[in-house]
Design a protein that fits this description.
Elements lengths: L2 H19 L18 E5 L8 E6 L6 E8 L3 E4 L5 E9 L7 E9 L5 E6 L14 E3 L5 E7 L3 E7 L4 E7 L3 E5 L7 E6 L4 E6 L5 E6 L16 E3 L2 E5 L4 E6 L6 E2 L3 E2 L3 H5 L3 E2 L5 E4 L4 E7 L13 E6 L4 E7 L5 E4 L6 E5 L6 E5 L5 E6 L6 E6 L1
Antiparallel strand pairs: 1-2, 1-30, 2-3, 4-5, 5-6, 6-7, 8-9, 9-10, 10-11, 12-13, 13-14, 14-15, 16-17, 17-18, 18-19, 18-20, 21-23, 22-23, 23-24, 24-25, 26-27, 27-28, 28-29
Length: 379
Amino acid sequence: MLKRPLVLVGLAALLAGARAELKPEQPTVATLPSPTPYRLYLSDMVISHFVDGKLMLIDGDSMALQGQVALGMAGQATLSPDRSEILVSTAYFSKLNRGERIAELDVYDATTLKLKAEINVPAKHAQAMPYRGAVRTSADGRWVFLQNATPATSVTVVDRAAGKFAAEVATPGCWMIYPPASASNRFSTLCGDGTLLTVTLDDNGQPVDRKKSRKFFDADDDALFVSAAQDGDTYTFVSFKGRVQPVDLSGTEAQPGEAWSLLSAADSAAGWRPGGYQPLALHAASGRLYVGMHPRGKEGSHKEPAREIWAFDLARKARVARLPGEKATVIAASQGQAPKVFGLATENGMVAVYDAGAKPRFVRRAGPFSEFGTQIDTH
C-alpha cells in the first residue's frame, strides 16, 4: 500500500529538479546573411489559397531558403533602389476573402524582414499574378508606383519619403509601369494602341505632362510581353512571335529603337517562340539577353514553358548559346561579375541555375520552392 506514494514522491522530486535547471528563453530577431548578387526574391501567388501569398528570399549560391514575407491576397512586390527595403502592394479583406478591402503599401526591412511602415492607399491596385512592373519605384526611391485596375487602368503614386498617398494618374488603355534610371519624376506605361505613354510628375506627385510615343507594335498581330528587361533608361521587350524591341525612356517621350528578330529562317520554320510569365532577363554588363523559347508555337502559346533558354549578344543581335529550358516560365539574371541565370518552373516550383559566363551552361536544379511562382527579382 505504501509503494505508489513513494514512487510519486520520487517522480515529483525529479521533476522539481528538472524545472530548476530550465532557463527561460529570450526571444530574438534574426538577421539575414549579407546579401550577394545572387539573392532571389521569388513571388508566389499560391493560387490554390491565394489569400496567403508570399515572397521567398533564396540564397542563389546554396539555394537555401533564407526568409519569407507575406504578400496577402494577390500582392505585388518590388525592392527599393538601394535594396534596403521590400515594398509590397497588397490588400486584406475583413472576412479573409470578402468584406471590406483594406489596401496598403507595406514596407519591410530587407535585412530583418521587420515591418517598417503601412501606408494606406486607395483600394484600386490590380489583384493579379505577380509581374515585374505592377509595382515599381522611381530611380531615387521617393515615389512608389502601383498599377491599378478597377477595371479602368490608372497608376497610384505613393510618396515613400512622406509615407502617404500622393496622386492617382489615369492611364486608359495602358498597362504596367516602366520608370527610367535618369529621372525620378517620370514613368512610362505600355498601351494597347501600340504606343508607350510617358507621364511627368511635379514635386507633389501630380501629373503635369503626358506624351505618347509613335506606334511601334501591333497588339493584335504581334503583342509584346509586358515583362521587360531594364538597362538604365533602355527597356528591352520581346514579342509573342520573337521580335526584340528596345525603347529609350530617357526623355519625356519614349523613343522606340530598331526591332530585330530572335529567329533564323530555320527557327521560324520550326515554330520557335518566346513563352512564360517573365520570359526574358538581361545581364547588363555583358549585354547578354536570355529568353525562354518553345517550338511549334501558335496563337495562345505565349505562356508555354521553355524547352530551351537562348542567350543573345545584344550588340551583335546574334544567338550565342542554347541551354536546356527546364520548363522555366520565369527567367532572371544576377548582375555584376560571374553572373548566373535562374529559371523558375511555375508548374513544380523548381529553380534551374545556369552559369552565365563566357560559355553559358546548366549547373543544377533545386527546390521545389513555390506553389505558383510567376516573378523573380535578383538583389
